[in-house]
Structures are given as C-alpha cells and as structure tokens.
Amino acid sequence: MDSFYAIMGGFSSALTFWNIVYCAFGVTLGTVIGLLPGLGSSTGVALLLPLTLGLDPLAAMILLAGIYYGAQYGGTISSVLVATPGEASSVPTVLDGYKLARQGRGGAALAVAAIASFLAGTISIVFLSVLLVPLAQIALKFGPPETFALMLFGIISVVGLASGDRFKGFAMAATGVLISTIGIDAMTGTARFTFGFTELLNGFDFLYVVIGLFAINEVLKAVGTGQPEPLRTRFRDMIVTREDMRRSAMPIFRGGLLGFFFGIIPGAGATLASFFSYDIERRIARKKGIMLGTGRIEGVAGPEAANNSSVNGSFIPTLALGIPGSATTAILLGGFLLFGIQPGPLLVREQPSLVWGLVASFYVGNVLLLILNLPLAPVFALMLRFRYCFLYPGILVVSILGAYSLENDLFGIWIVIGSAALGLGLTSYGYPAAPLILGLVLGRPLETSLVQTSSMGTGSLLFFFERPIAVVLLALSLASVIVPPLMAHLDRQRKARSDQALARPSR
Amino acid sequence: MKFLRTSERSAGEVICALSFLALGAFVVLDGLQYPVMADGIVGPGLMPLVWGASLAAVAVVLVVNALRGASVMDDLPPPVDGENLSIADFAEDDTEAAGKPTTVAGILILMGLSVVLAPAVGLIPMLGVLVFVCVFAFEREGFLTAALMAIGSMAAAWALFVWLFEVPVPVGSVWQAMGF
C-alpha cells in the first residue's frame, strides 16, 4: 500500500506541465536516436547529459530516461524497415520484422511492436513499483563491507554476462577502475598518476570518457559504411488484425516477465533479454510446427516486449543499489552523481519525489510512446532517408561542445579524443566499452568503502568475514568468475560428445 | 556489419593485449611509490596494486589467447537467419570494424586541430571547418552543400551553447584583435 501512495505521489511530480514536456521531448528524441543506425541510447544519453546539468534533477532524469526507453522503440523501426537495428537489443526483431516488411506487413509489425512495448512496459512498471522499496530496505542494512562486496559483484557480473570474452571485459573494467584512481586520493590527499598535470588533480570526469567512447567512437565506426534503402510503410498498413493480437498475446506476456528479470540482473540488459525471448518463442513455435525467422509476428512481439521491459527492470539495481544494469544506466548513474545525488539504498527514503517521480514518468513515457508510435511510425520512418554523411558532423560538433561545457576547459576535449581513438581500437577487437564505464563510475566509491571497511576492522580486511551479507556477495562474485567458464567448458564437452554421436552412424 | 580479416585481427589482438599488459605493469611499478597501508587503514597504493596486478595477469591470458588465435569467437561468420544463433551473436558490444581509415584519421586530426587552434580562431569556427571538411572532402558532397552545412552547424552550435546555455566558448584571439 505504501508503494501505491508513493507512486501516486510520483505521478503528481511527473504530471507537471514541464515534466510532461521533458518526457515527450525525451521519448521523441530517443525514438529518433534509436532508429538512426550508428546512434544508440547510450550515445544519446551521453550527448544530452552535459546539456541537462542546468535543469532540475527530476526533469533531467525524466528527459534522459525518456531517451533510453524511446530509443528501444526507435530501434524497432530501423530493424523492421531497413534490417539495421539502431540498438543491439533490436537485433532479434530484424529476423521476423524485416521479412514481414518485405511481405508488405511492416506496418503491422511496427504496430504490434509498439503495443508489445507498451504492455510489457506496464507489466514491468508494476513490478518496479512493488520491488523497489523492499530491495532498498534490504540494502539499507548495508554498511561499507556490504557496499564494497556489492559493487565488486556488480562489476564482475557485468564482465561475466555482458560480453563474449570475459577476459576482455575484465581488462576493460580494471582499466576503468585504474583510471578512477587518477587524481587526489580522498582519504590521504595523495596525488596519484597525475604526471604533473594540474588538470588531472581532480581526476577524470567519466563524461569525457563516455562522450569519446560512445558518441564519437560510434561515428568513427559508422563513417563510410553506407546504409541500405528503407522499405516504405504507410498509415493504412498500421492496422493490426485480431489474429495478430491473438498470436502476440502470450509472447508479449512472456517477454514482459523475462525482460524485467533480465533487466534486474546487472549486465544482462535488454540485449540478452530480447535474444532469450526470441529463443523461447522460436522453441515454442517449433513445437506448433511454425518456423520463426520466416516473417512471424510472434518473433517481433516477444523480443520487443522483453527489451522494453528490461529497460524498466534495469532501473531497480541502479536506483536501489547504485549498481547500473546496463551501459546506459551506468551513464545515468554518473548523471545522478553529477547532480550530487547518490543512487543507492538511501535514495528511496531521502529523495522519494525524485525516485517515484522518475518511476511514474516511465509510465507517462510509455503512454506517450504508444500515442506517438501507433500513428506516427511511418513519419519517423521517413527519417531513415536522412543520410548519415549529414548527420555525423553534427554529432561531432555537439560532442565536442558538450565536453567543453562540462568544465569550460579545452583539456577535456583531449580526453574525449583520446578515449575515442583508444575506444575505436579496442572495440574493433571485441573489447566491450560498458565494463570500462562501470569501473570508472564505481572505482572511487569502491575504494572509499574498502578504506572504511579497513577502518572498521582497525586495519584488517578480515573484517569482511564477520559480515555474512558481504561474505555471500563476495562468494557470488567469485562464482561469477568461476561458473560461466566452467559452464562453457561443460557445454563444449557436451556438444563435442553429441557431434561424435552424430558422426558415428554415418561411418 | 564489417568484420576484420583474420591476420589483421591476430596482430591487433596481440597489440591490444600487450598494451593492457604494459598498462598493468606500469601501474603496479609506478604505484609502488604510494603506501599500501597508511595510518592503520588501506592506503592510496592498494587499489592500483591490486587492480594493476589483476590487469597484468588477465593481459597475460589475453596475450596467450591472441597468439594462439583462440580468443576470436567473433571470427565466425555473422548469422543469416533465426536458426543456430548464440548469445554471443547479440553481445552488447559487438565486434565491429572502424569506418574508412582515411576518414577516421582525418576526423581525429581535425578534432585535434580544432582544440589546438580554438584559442586563436575560436572553437565554433573551427568546428565549422570540421563540418565543412567532413562533408566536402570525406563525403564528396558539393562545395555549396558543405558550406551550408558548416554555416548551419555553427549557427545551431552558437544558438544552443552560447545563447541558450551561456557557455563561455573560446571566441578566438584573432577575431578579438580584429575588433570583432
């Protein structure tokens, strides 16, 4: 019941004129960002974050969160009409969505995707409202040892789940943590790794790295790659049949639930959620003698529901624990810190109007996105004809000026250029960017909680073993390191055995 | 989505892994000047030591993997339909090749030049030059199109950052000397 009153209070904050305007602006901009190949929600949030620093924190977060989930909708449009997902989480949508578009049913695919996203968003917001407070109350029992263990678990689970090669993910996370140690150490006042540059005494602002690693890096990857011609869709094609909705109902429900729980797990995120949803729908359809990947509406409804739901789910660890669930929420977490707000257990209690206003804005945003996308998807689709060669110079200009405006200092732009160049080299070889950002954002608080723990244990880190929750979290961190490679090894062995068994009869 | 050739990948993988190894080793060695314990609590040297050593250890594995060519599951061809997909095919940070090398290098150099020349010429005019060169030279659009894009970008940048957000963007000593 408390949650009910809290969310009602949130609606009263979110439904002010200006907050609705910021929400509408955010979701519209997010849709455009998501549908333009080469841009993603993390790029959009990274670009806009410096520009929102003058706003009220709730308005800024409503705008930025709007970009995040608006981009999930936008990614669907380019997936269905151009077979080019604007977001990685929209990749499974391409498989059936583009085939539907080629069969002249692109409008129906877009409409079902919009409805699926809205319904799944609704499911996930209900879960979010119910689970946020209990989780935060549990987390309130956390002291420095538990906080340290939780942050370590967050970093390691992101490394374990978000990328193909865990070693590369760990290398990036460790680099992020090491970058966070640059500057004056808060405990002893020692200047570390500054090499005589006074600009480095305050450390690296993570936003410089984010702008370089996401916004400019994406431009450098995309220049000169070309773009396929989009398929046309019209208003009258947006009509969804009763049969479409009947076939989509269960995939939407399954995708909504699956997406939410994937969103809660740090590092799993929308991409894995939409893929798993597609995989489940593929298996269920196969049992009915239906092949997904041939232009089936179920293949659009499930993944779209999952990716939208996971976005809302990913806000639970971000808001309640201060552990981001995805690359974009890692940037948003940094945004909270820039506003002087520390996400974590105390946030729900100390800033209820901010937290519940933001949660309520998700619902407002979902309604706005449905209103926008059902009739206007063909209009958004026209933007796919806008050539990238005219788009990226603008992104460069906004990135550079955005970076400059953070501290009104040209030195920051050098960090942006360096991050972009290094990021381009590393991501070209499969090094994931998200763990570096997470390490950079969590590095300082991780060290602070470690120092506080050692102080509580009068210099001994064995104090961790006197705290059961910290021990469990450290054990989970260790398991996150050991179990995935072990499972992969067992999976390879199982595959090898089944291959051998298949090969035997043919001899 | 473009994929790098295997030989290019192997050399690049080794260079990346060696760079991480060098970084880890440097942090450990340079971090030795900071105390691991200070006043009976964890000192400023512990985090660099632990994370630097961990990075170096992981980098050794990456170097070995790169030399064996074993770490590149991404060399597999991209999936063509809904069957036989794996989670790795949808990794958030998919392995992608960079754009045209000359354009990439050109953009990075122009960005650097913009910062170097901003105190003299102004940041927004330098970004106008960046836009013009990108559109005219790299994208081979017409002179007029490029010029209009550059002027439009400068006007939009001025309106957004200088007029709306009141950011004190460097205006350029040259223009100030000329009385502008």
Give a topology summary.
The complex is a heterodimer of chains A (507) and B (180).
Chain A: H1 2-14, H2 17-35, H3 41-48, H4 57-82, H5 91-102, H6 106-139, H7 144-162, H8 166-180, E1 183-184, E2 191-192, H9 206-222, H10 242-264, H11 269-287, H12 298-313, H13 315-321, H14 327-338, H15 345-350, H16 352-382, H17 388-407, H18 411-428, H19 434-456, H20 468-506
Chain B: H1 6-31, E1 37-38, E2 41-42, H2 46-68, H3 101-121, H4 123-138, H5 143-164, H6 173-177
Antiparallel strand pairs in B: 1-2
**So what's the overall shape of chain A?**
globular
Strand order of the largest sheet of chain B: 1-2
N-end to C-end Cα span of chain A: 67 Å
- Give the termini separation of chain B: 48 Å
**What Rg of chain B is obtained from the alpha carbons, in whole angstroms?**
24 Å
Shape of chain B: flat
Number of helices of chain B: 6
Strand segment tally of chain B: 2
Regions of chain A with pLDDT < 50 over 5+ consecutive residues?
Answer: none
Strand order of the largest sheet of chain A: 1-2
Beta percentage of chain B is under 5%
Q: Could you say how many structural domains of chain B there are in total?
A: 2
Give the domain tally of chain A.
1
Helix content of chain B: 55-70%
Protein name (chain B): Tripartite tricarboxylate transporter TctB family protein
Keywords (chain B): Membrane, Transmembrane, Transmembrane helix
Pfam families (chain B): TctB
InterPro entries (chain B): DUF1468 (IPR009936)
Structure description:
Chain B: Residues 15-170 form the DUF1468 domain. Chain B: InterPro entries: DUF1468. Chain B: This is Tripartite tricarboxylate transporter TctB family protein. The complex is a heterodimer of chains A (507) and B (180). By secondary structure, chain A is an all-alpha fold. Helix content of chain A is 74%, strand content 1%. A two-stranded antiparallel sheet of chain A has the order 1-2. The N and C termini of chain A lie far apart (67 Å). Chain B is mainly alpha-helical and 180 residues long. In chain B, helix 1 runs antiparallel to helix 2 (46-68), helix 3 (101-121) runs antiparallel to helix 4 and helix 4 packs antiparallel against helix 5 (143-164). Chain B starts with 5 loop residues before the first helix and ends with a helix. The model of chain B is unreliable at 71-97 (pLDDT under 50). Chains A and B meet through helix 5, helix 8, helix 9, helix 11 and helix 17 of A and helix 1, strand 1, strand 2, helix 2 and helix 3 of B.
